[in-house]
Structures are given as C-alpha cells and as structure tokens.
Amino acid sequence: MYTFVNNIIRFSNKTTLDDFILTGLSTKHSIEFPLFMLFLVIYVFSFLSNISMTLLIGAVPKLHTPMYFFLSHLSLIDMCYSSTILPKMLSDFLTKQKYISFRACATQMFFFAMFATSECFMVTAMAYDRYVAICQPLLYHINMNNTFCWLLVIGSYMSSLVASVTHTVAIFSFPLCGSHEINHFYCDIPPLLKLICKHSHARKSVIFSLSLAMGIVSLFIILTSYVYIISTILGIQSTHGRSKAFSTCASHLTVVILFYSSVFCIYFSPSLGLELGNIDKFFSIFYSVASPLLNPLIYSFKNTEVKNALKHFLILNIKMKHLNT
C-alpha cells in the first residue's frame, strides 16, 4: 500500500520532496515528556482493548451475530487508524524538531482518511442492523444474513479506499506552496488544505463535496434508522421490553454522537466560515485518540452480552489451564 501511495505522489509536479514541520500539540518542551507518557498509556490500552474485543468476538460463538460482526470490524478499524497517528505523535514528543517527509505525510493522510471513512460507514451499517433488529425482528436473520453483512463491510472498505485515494490525489497531485509548517500533530486534511495553492479552489471543492456527501448520506441513514427505532420502541407496551430495546441501541448511539460531533467540528466548520484555531487539535485528539479508546469500553461496560461472554471465556481458559496441569 505504501508503494501505491508513492505512485500517486509521482504524478506531482514537485521536483524535490521536502520535509514538513509539524507544530505538535504544544510548544512547551517541559510538558512533552508527561504528554508522551500519557498518550503512550492511552495508545497501549486502546490497542489492547480493541484487539481483545476483536479476538473475543471471534472466539465466542455466542457473539457470532451481525451486530458483533460489525463491532469486531469497528474495533479493527479503531486499532488501525489510531496506529496511523499515535506512533509518530509519540516519537515527536521526544524530539525538538518534528519533521515528516512529503511521502510519509501523504502516506499518513491516506491511511488515516481511509480508516476514518471506514469508521463512518461501519457505524452506519451498525445503525441499519439495529433498525432491522428492532423494527423488523421476524425478518432479521433473513435480511441480515452472512452474505449481506460481508457485502456491507467490503462495500465500506472499498468506498473508503476510493475516497482516500481521491483526497490524496486532490492534495498531493500538485505542488504545495507557502510555509512547510503544518499546524497540527499529524497530516490531516484541513491543515494541509491551507498549504495548497495551484487550482486550490477546485481541489478544495472536490474534497469538501466528497466529504460532505459521504457525511450527509451516512448521517441521514443513521438518523432515519433511529427515527424508526425510537418510534417502534415507544410503541412497545412492556416497560421491560422498551428498556431492553433502548439498551441495545444506547452503546451505538453514544459512539455515533461522539464520532460525528467531533468530525463535524473539524471538517465542516471551516467550510461554514468558522475558524476554531488550535481548538481543532482538541477535537482531533478526541476522534483520533480518545474515540478508539472509548469505543470498546462503551460496548463492553454497557453491554451485558459482552461482559458475560468475557467472563465465560476467562473461566473456560482457567479451567483448561487447570486440566492441562
């Protein structure tokens, strides 16, 4: 995939691939080591939580349902796109000059855009899954069959790949001009857009239109699904039934609100004429660092099936160890 990104960059008119300078989170060197330790703990815990969720869902047959199938891919995506950002971010905390090469910057942006877009599509697929489960329960196993679930997942990955290639080509296919300083802690689309010069309006329009279209379509499907879901739940006579139905959606709805609120502030506010300044770094930390950490915690702590499956899995492993000894 790195070679593929390099092939995209070869279309560039740039004759030399200069380094960029990342401003990072803070200019105060005295707090960079404490930040390094903090984000190292977050990254390790996030990585282990997501890979554990993926392995648990794969190992426990009770969790082999469409909802947990999508959740396992969500955990895989979270693990990948936090790994695209945090290792470089951690190394920058330990250096005075935070350089990143032209190719490395393009590669980082390509993978981050791909995984972030995949997350957008995956939570949309999960919303549709909840809609079918609650609003069409008798047809759930027919509509959400294994083939259809795989089509949704593969479609999410392929659409994300196309979107990421489009973004990368739009930004890096022509020379960037002006300062080589990126006012961010990684190569994200909004700060890079500020560095483009040639055909800048057309390129910004392509990127914004594509991002807006994907965001609106995904959000429309999610909101429409929840309108029907809430309408169906309110029609349930049993209080226990309503509570159970709400609990199956609470975790996913929490993830959707956290993800889309931060993404909107980063990607759509500049297009509406709203300048966030350095506050955009806070929102970027939220969806690139905190979100991959919170997602498995939200689903594990608020989901009885996951907690029971984990307990059963641990007890079974302990018994197997005793039998082996």
Report on this structure:
With 325 residues, the protein is an all-alpha fold. The protein has one domain (2-307): Rhopdopsin 7-helix transmembrane proteins (Up-down Bundle). Helix content is 74%, strand content 2%. The protein is built from eleven helices and three strands. It has helices at 2-9, 32-59, 66-93, 102-135, 140-143, 146-172, 189-193, 200-234, 239-267, 279-301, 304-324; strands at 20-22, 99-100, 181-182. The chain has a three-stranded mixed sheet. Helix 2 (32-59) runs parallel beside helix 10, helix 3 runs antiparallel to helix 4 and helix 3 (66-93) crosses helix 10 (279-301). The longest helix is centred in the C-terminal third of the chain and has 35 residues, at 200-234. It is globular. The model is unreliable at 11-17 (pLDDT under 50). Keywords: Cell membrane, G-protein coupled receptor, Membrane, Olfaction, Receptor, Sensory transduction, Transducer, Transmembrane, Transmembrane helix. Belongs to the G-protein coupled receptor 1 family. Pfam families: 7tm_4. Residues 49-299 form the G-protein coupled receptors family 1 profile domain. The chain crosses the membrane at residues 35-60, 106-128, 148-174, 206-229, 250-270, 282-301.
